[in-house]
Amino acid sequence: MRRPNVTVLGGGSWGSAIASIAARNAPTLLWARDEATVADINERHVNSRYLDDLPLNPALRATNDLEHAIATADVLVLGVPSQACRGVLTEAAEHLRPWVPIVSLVKGLEQGSRLRITEVVRETLPGHPVGVLNGPNIAREIAAGYAAAATLAMPDQQQAESLQNLLRSTMFRVYTSTDVVGVEVAGALKNIFAIATGFGDGLEAGDNTRAMVITRSLRELSRLGVAMGGHEQTFSGLAGMGDLIATCTSPHSRNRRVGIRLAQGKTLPEIEAELKQVAEGVKSAPVVMELSREHGVEMPIAREVDAVLNHGQTAVRAYRGLLREAPEHE
Ligand code: 13P
């Protein structure tokens, strides 16, 4: 049987790392807007903009021709920033064959519509099976070949199992699930809590504080996730607790770095200029506040993060708020 063509949309760090894994298993094409990234991947087998000189699989090809990348896809993997998804998918719509399954790598929510990205996919590309891959996946560690794992959730278990074979390697284990909502919500929410943990780390609050924030964050994340339709056990798995721990503790996390730098007195525009990448939690914090109101779920940690990002609150005051408002019973 012919191996399916995989197309990965997005030349950022995670899109490139997953595309490099997929290229071991099937012909894989990465679409990036940036011409220098395309040349880097095709000629030097690296993505020096986001992954320094970590070697990518030489079989991986890149293009900036979206129509070609979409028209040849048997499987589509979506790895562009959340707020760019609708635009790219709308451009892609007329070129994609109808039965092609789509896997989102995106850990964010769409502002305005408040939709999860798989819901944005369903609106822009109706009729396609769509799911999500999420876990504690710091891209540069996976590109460097360190052991890691993720959960691939598709509505259909059999489809999850066939896609699992395309996206895994000996060092990157992929588990399957049918809880698309839970896996997706966990991926979007953990970024906000990584910003909260960053506040504590930037204020040098210590290890107890970090552990408290991560643990309480897991509770907030699970409550909203269950209210939105996710399964409780998903939140203690790789996509929930796993990704929360990685993102809240990694020096490579963009979201945690945003929190640290805000606590050190930098402004958001200064931090974004320094990062040169999107920290999804900044975009999803106000959306999560709306969702928490809609579902009647109290989220004191997320609320403090949103207050610092969008309402002139300082990280020091946010920490006092968090501690003051902590309930007496778990
Ligand atoms: P950041 O976007 O904060 O770097 O998160 C990385 C991540 O999602 C690890 O699983």
In brief, what are we looking at here?
The protein contains 16 helices and 8 strands. The chain is of the alpha/beta class.
Blueprint of the fold:
Elements: E1 6-9, H1 13-25, E2 28-31, H2 35-44, H3 48-51, E3 61-63, H4 66-71, E4 75-78, H5 82-92, E5 102-104, H6 117-124, E6 130-134, H7 139-143, E7 148-153, H8 157-167, E8 172-177, H9 180-202, H10 207-227, H11 238-249, H12 254-263, H13 268-275, H14 280-295, H15 300-310, H16 315-325
Parallel strand pairs: 1-2, 1-4, 2-3, 4-5, 5-6, 7-8
Antiparallel strand pairs: 6-7
Helix pairs in contact: 5-6, 9-10, 9-11, 9-12, 9-14, 9-15, 10-11, 12-13, 14-15, 15-16
Bound molecules: 1,3-dihydroxyacetonephosphate.
Bound molecules: 1,3-dihydroxyacetonephosphate
Element-level helix/strand string? EHEHHEHEHEHEHEHEHHHHHHHH
CA-atom Rg in angstroms = 19 Å
Largest sheet: 8 strands, mixed
| Shape label | globular
> Segments where pLDDT lies below 50 for 5+ residues?
none
- What portion of residues belong to β-strands? 5-15%
Helix content: 40-55%
Q: How many separate helices?
A: 16
The total of beta strands comes to 8
Structural class: alpha/beta
Strand order of the largest sheet: 3-2-1-4-5-6-7-8
